[in-house]
Amino acid sequence: MREIAALRTEADNHKDRALRALAEVENVRKRLERERDEARTYGVTRFARDLLTIADNLSRALAALPADAREKADDSLKAVLDGVEATERELQATLARHGVKPIAAEGQRFDPHLHQAIGEVPAKGAEPGSVVNVVQPATRSASGCCGPPW
Known about the structure:
By secondary structure, the chain is mainly alpha-helical. It has a domain at 99-150: Head domain of nucleotide exchange factor GrpE (Nucleotide Exchange Factor Grpe, Chain A, domain 2), CATH 2.30.22. The protein has three helices and three strands; from the N terminus they run αααβββ. A hairpin with a 5-residue loop joins β2 and β3 (146-147).
């Protein structure tokens, strides 16, 4: 009788260890799936942030050129400017196709979840606590990530 009880106890111990091992394997599988999904999501986010920096630089470069300077430019410079403008449009269209869209800020109430303030300045006609000047535009992707400010 004691032998049977000892064998049952041993069998129960083995069964318990096997169930715990299966549970551990399942937990590891779920953790790896979650890490894989996060790596995909955040890897794309980092790449999108890098592209946004390029898009911002293209926009700033085009905005820095006065309108009259373009009119006075020779044909080769106009061709370069047309190419830069086309590149900017294509980059913006590509970002939009992937759900990266600008966040309206100027004139809006400051939202610390979407905006980053450099400072607070008085502005005629602006409500206190509203954004009066955008230094670097922010974006939101379809997945909810925000890009500049970082």
